[in-house]
Write a structure and sequence with these properties.
By secondary structure, this protein is of the alpha+beta class. 29% of the residues lie in helices and 17% in strands. It contains 3 helices and 8 strands, in the order E-E-H-E-E-E-E-E-E-H-H. A hairpin with a 6-residue loop joins strand 7 and strand 8. The radius of gyration is 27 Å and the shape is elongated. The protein starts with a strand and ends with a helix.
Length: 128
């Protein structure tokens, strides 16, 4: 049951209410226990020294990937610091700009840049 406080107007939940109790409330009301999955944090380091720690569900050592893409620079990270890992797959790492360059010719890129600059200049000269 939600209760509105008379002086400051904040909402509260009455003691003993299941609302907002989360997992603890579910266990208390159902009489059942909830089995949590064991989490395994795994450390990866890219060639630039960035550390990434994804968390996996209960996996065996063989199921945990030996490499992981670095979220900061996109290079392939390995499980040992300083060890260079060859990326799996046929295609080497490409930046966002490299993918954009594949989709546009230099003339299309220049046209898009001109449109964006004209829009920026229009906003600068418009009062308000």
């Amino acid at each position: 049951m939600n209760v509105m406080h008379p002086t400051h107007g904040l909402r509260a939940v009455r003691v003993g209410s299941v609302t907002g109790a989360g997992l603890a409330g579910w266990q208390a009301n159902s009489g059942r226990s909830h089995n949590l999955v064991r989490k395994v944090p795994v450390r990866y380091w890219c060639p630039q020294g960035h550390e990434t720690v994804p968390v996996f569900a209960d996996l065996t050592e063989a199921e945990i990937p030996q490499s992981w893409d670095c979220p900061r620079c996109g290079q392939t990270a390995g499980r040992e610091r300083g060890l260079l890992v060859q990326p799996s797959g046929d295609e080497p790492f490409k930046s966002h700009l490299e993918y954009v360059k594949e989709r546009r010719t230099p003339a299309e890129a220049a046209e898009a840049l001109d449109r964006a600059l004209a829009e920026l200049r229009r906003h600068r000269t418009t009062p308000g």
